Amino acid sequence: MAKISIKDLKFFYGSNEVIHGISLDIAANEILALIGPANSGITTLLRSINRLYELTPGARMEGEITLDGDDINASSVSITELRRKVGMVFDIPTPLPLSIFDNVAYGPRLSGNTNKQDLMVIVEKSLRLAAVWDDVKDRLSEAASSLSGGQQQRLCIARVLALEPEVILLDRPCSGLDPISTTKLEGSLEELKKDYTIVIAPHNTQQAVRVSDSVAFLLMGDLIEAGPTSEVFVTPKDTRTSDYITGRFG
Amino acid sequence: MNKDTISKMVFFILALSSISALALITGFIFIQGLPLFFKVGFANIVFGTKWAPSQGSFGIFPMIVGSVCVTLGATLLGVPIGVCCSIFLVEYCPASLSNLFRPAIQLLAGIPSVVYGFWGLLFIVPFIRNNLGGPGLSMLAGSMILGIMILPTIISISEVSLKDLPRQYKEGALALGMTHWQAIYSVLLPAARSGITAAIVLGIGRAIGETMAVIMVLGNAVALPESILDPIRTLTTNIGIEMGYATGDHQQALFATGIVLFVIIMILNSFAQYIARRK
Amino acid sequence: MNTNDKTIEKIAKAIIWSAALFVLVILTAIIAYILAKGLPILNWGFLTQIPRNMGRSGGISSTIVGTLMVTAVALVIAIPFGIGTAFYLAEYTKESWATRLMRFSAESLAGIPSIVYGLFGFIFFVISLNMKWSVLSGGLTLSFMILPTIIRTSEEAIRSVPTTYREVSFSLGATKWQTISKAVFPSALRGITNGVILSIGRCIAETAAVILTAGTALKMPTSIFSPTRTMAVHFYILAREGISMENAYGTAALLIILIFLINVVANAAVNRLMEKGR
Question: How far apart are CA C111 and CA C105, in angstroms?
């Protein structure tokens, strides 16, 4: 069974339909890359998986998204639990104005874990997983904003990992980063795949090729093509897909 | 009920405070002052020229005229200086000076109004008496003090509206070959018009409402002024001077004065809010 | 650019500079005069002795205590209501007729003259609620007066907290309340503090509203039910009735110094905010 199953998803901002009925399955422990030009609905799709779109006034979704077979919009679902299961990393590093430690401990503390010892264990583990522990281990009480952009972004990943989520959504996580930081971050994704399901909007198609197992190509709110990365990039079925990946547009 | 629902309810209840406060103030001032309007007659109060509370005459027309005149004077003095200062802050002020100028404006806003009044009494009043004649305690003295006191209001609000203008306005104007002043005068000031107007209206409101500063320099005579060197009394000073010992109808008459003041202020406020919102 | 334009440019520049200098000169003149006359009066005895003989001799200790007590009452009431309103307006609701009414009320309150607050406080707290002239009546009246300041500055502070903080907090599974208390409030705290500090300044400087509600008693206030005289009122009475010019100057100097310190602290708070921001 798919980890996440999206069925006939439509999405509206006010009366403006931006996603026109997408169906897509995401398998457990894979990295799925969502590719497509700007305004294709990729960010919106990511935000509907953890229901973060609800913060946007006038935003509305139709259709069904299931996580492990359960409808995420069912009234019995706790939105806070859903967001803990489905963590999100944003397109720019978004440290909260707290210390490094407090940033990572933010999530665990929300669920009532205030034991300093426990928190320390979780924080260290998460920072190690996000490959940023060595950079920050001596300065945990410093402001998170004192880190470099790449470190901040990996801190944000650690912050998500501290929730012990099942799925991680990454919305163009490398768009503000230099190539070296990007390489490090991609390296950590490879590690993380073992334990998590990852949906990433890469900031270019090369990154999709490098990191993903499967890929879905969205264009203007429609899903054009989806499949294993190797197949889609080598033998695209749709001409629009081949036009896009060969760089004719987008 | 979860914490979110509870917190929302608590905040909603707290947020009713501003409405309740305004309603309470309006209610109590009107309850206390309105009966006299019915007893003596609206026209006899608002257009009556004789104020002799012990004899049952409650005409506050001279005070209304006094308030309007002092405020007009304050506006004539304060607005040009204030608007010039806001232009200075946005367009001419060197960075080093702005670190001095901005706190200075804040300090000007923070100085207690009694201190202004006292200073006016010591410097402005004798100056007028010695150079222009009259008792010195006068409408002119009041206007000068108020003209200074409304500066922070006018400067800060005008400054914000000038600063919020898109950079392109100025750059576009300069690119067309305008001089700096031409750009300010024919592009920036008109574009910031609504904000500056709101600043002026709020400044007028402050001037009309000020009490303690003008009490010390106006002379407080109840008479229609014939020249700007005459002592006069305003609505606010009428309340400030007599509230300490008034009882009965006299006290109600002071609340009636308060109603007139309140209504004027509310009209000005609503007007300022309307302009500021219209953009 | 022809010569005519150049002349106008120069004249305009000169006028604008002189307006700015005029303001600085006036401010300096007022402050320098009061401090020159008042600072020599300020000494430990003046600050710690009770006023005697109507304020002709002795110090101003009871008026300092009275001012602090009245201000404290005003803050205790206005802070929760003001900040609560700000959070409601900024975080909990969309624009509607109710929020427009709240905003209209707050902005109207900001424009109401202090003498009208005095009238209201007198008839409502002093007479109707029978609190008499007291610290409590004065403080409550001032709390109404500073409410709009606190609402506005807090709402601005809350709105200037980056949206990403909220999104991050929600995305980590926080509830609305957790997001507001753990992510938004700490970030807005400095701006909110700034508004509160400015309100303290308004309370200390206020005369018209407190003279009608807290009274003019010179005795040391013993509880919030005691009548009291604040420093600004004391200065007003000393100066207006010519009781003691020396002590009036001394009181005014202390007021100016306090207002100055309050502004310095408020500015420091703003500057720290800007440093922390990036």
Answer: 10
Report the 10 Å Cβ neighbour count for C15. Answer: 16
Residue among B15, B181, B236 whose CB faces C12 most closely: B181
Asked whether residue A250 carries a pLDDT value surpassing 80, the answer given is no
Number of residues in chain B:
279
Q: What is the CATH number of the domain that holds A160?
A: 3.40.50.300
Q: Model's pTM, two decimal places?
A: 0.89
Is B209 among the domain residues?
yes
With contact defined as beta carbons under 8 Å apart, do A36 and A244 qualify? yes
- Give A106's contacts in chain C (Cβ within 8 Å): 169, 172, 174, 182-183
Give me the phi and psi of A93, to 5 degrees please. Answer: -60, 130
Structural domain contains residue B21: no
Measured between beta carbons, which residues in chain C are less than 8 angstroms from residue A87?
Answer: 171-172
Tell me the residue range of the domain where B135 lies. Answer: 63-278
- Integer Cα distance of B22 and B25 in angstroms: 5
Encoded tokens for B144: 């000068």
The complex scores an ipTM of 0.93
Q: Which string of b and e fits A219-239 if b means at least 16 CB within 10 Å?
A: bebebbbbbebeebbeebeee
What pLDDT, in 10s, does the model give residues A35-52? 999 888 999 999 999 999
Neighbours of chain B (3+ CB pairs under 8 A): C
Helix C114-121 to helix B193-209 angle, to the nearest 10 degrees? 50
| SS3 label, residue A14 | coil
And the tokens for C118? 């005095």
Does a structural domain hold residue C8?
no
Contact list, B91 vs chain C (CB under 8 Å): 16
In a domain, C262, yes or no: yes
